[in-house]
Amino acid sequence: MNLLWTSEEMVQAMHARPVGRLPQGVTGISIDTRTIGRGEAFFAIRGERFDGHDFVTKAMHAGAALAVVSEEKLVMFGNLQLPLLVVTNVLGALENLARLARQRSQARIVAVTGSVGKTSTKEMLRAALAACGKVHASAASHNNHWGVPLSLARMPQSAEYGVFEIGMNHAGEITPLARLVRPHVAIITAVAPAHLGAFRSVDDIARAKAEIFAGLERGGTAIINRDDRRFRLLGELAARAKVKNLRSFGARKGADFRLQSAELLAEGSVVEASIAGQPVTYRIGAPGTHFVANSLAVLGAAATLGADLAKCALALAGVRPEKGRGERHRLRIDGGEAVLIDESYNANPASMAAALAVLAATPVAGRGRRIAVLGDMLELGRSSNRLHRALKKPIETAGIDRVFLAGEKMGELARILHPSLLAGHAASAAELERPLAASLREGDVVMVKASLGSRFTALVESLLKTYPAVGKAVG
Ligand SMILES: Nc1ncnc2c1ncn2[C@@H]1O[C@H](COP(=O)(O)OP(=O)(O)O)[C@@H](O)[C@H]1O
Ligand SMILES: [Mg+2]
């Protein structure tokens, strides 16, 4: 059995007090009993809604090898004779283990932050680097104060590459996480209005993202977006953080990882780029200019880490859009098919623009139409109304035939969209289910996008129920 950690290592690293009969070690780390694997350690983390201590017995039944619990809560397990590691603070213990994982590792490490594209870029890095060595990457969007230490503590000693997503809602959040990860390469994908509620300006968001530089290893490389409006500001912040190696990606002149040309196809893109002077041509198996942009950062990072550029580039053909982030379904409808693009996971002005452009580039069949189903972009603070109204233009230029809107904030857009475009505006996504399903026909391409909190994921599920998927559409 392959152990991730021995119990002895955990005791040492976490200053833990062992209780009960401990196993020799654990095969993994979990904080969630719904996904825990046999032989893993269960860390009883306290979240916003739940306290992991209430799930310890469930974790043990699910096959956990041991649980890490807080001294304060020990009475809950007094008579159960469970294998426990008792600590003063469970999250602190996880951080300590994460620190040891980083310390013992020989892996080349990349950290990814940004307002959009963190997970897409992280998954693209996983795919690219896997062609060159053993990769460990964060799961899902585990990018916050527990997600980062969890991802790091899960890194096996044998990993040759480590890829970590780092996110934030507030200034000051990224610094300690970046210092934990200590990346050799730090990428900032893009800076855009997202979680603007907690910030005065987009410049302030850039400053918060730039905190990632604080964690760079000595001699490490920062990679920033040459086409971003905050490129110059980020460059200054990198200099202030004493970053020695600053590189950029993008289409503009001067970018180190530079786009030469991109052919944008419905199911992906064909790209020619120059990566630190090396010409490379590759396919990306996910459509949209945003994936093209992300791929430049990915290949730039891979080359910086010393990976084989040609192998990494080749692997990008296997990248697919993820669930809720552009995943495509072919719906069976009227004896024919329609395409559903599921973008229900997230929305802010940058990703809306990217998704509308993908919809524009997706061909319809026969009498089919391009249909956009859009919900509120949340956490945009005072600029919210303006940013919702600003969607009018990209919608009009994208060759979209019908627009369904839901949510209070989308009311702003509903008021100014041309009536011939607007199929309807409802208070909630649920109310769009019937009219949308009734209006679909063969040949249509439907794109559903909103912030997660707007509950458009349920709308996607209901469409999939009404019109069972024939299979995943290519791309
Ligand atoms: N560089 C980019 N610019 C604009 N939108 C992007 C970019 N990369 C990804 N997206 C889109 O943004 C949304 C969120 O992507 P994701 O990779 O999950 O970002 P994050 O992890 O930063 O939340 C998806 O709809 C995705 O297709
Ligand atoms: Mg993410």
CATH topology of the largest domain, by name, is UDP-N-acetylmuramoyl-L-alanine:D-glutamate ligase
Residues in helix, %:
25-40%
- The CATH fourth-level homologous superfamily of the largest domain: Mur-like, catalytic domain
User: What's the architecture of the largest domain in CATH terms?
Assistant: 3-Layer(aba) Sandwich
CATH class of the largest domain: Alpha Beta
Total individual domains: 3
> What small molecules does the structure contain?
adenosine-5'-diphosphate, magnesium ion
How large is the count of helical segments?
16
Overall geometry: globular
Question: Quick check: average pLDDT?
Answer: 95
Number of strands: 23
For the biggest sheet, the summary is: 9 strands, mixed
Structural class: alpha/beta
Widest sheet: strand ordering: 9-10-8-11-12-13-14-15-16
Question: Termini, distance in Å?
Answer: 37 Å
**Approximately how much beta-strand content do the residues carry?**
15-25%
Rg from C-alpha positions?
23 Å
Low-confidence stretches: none
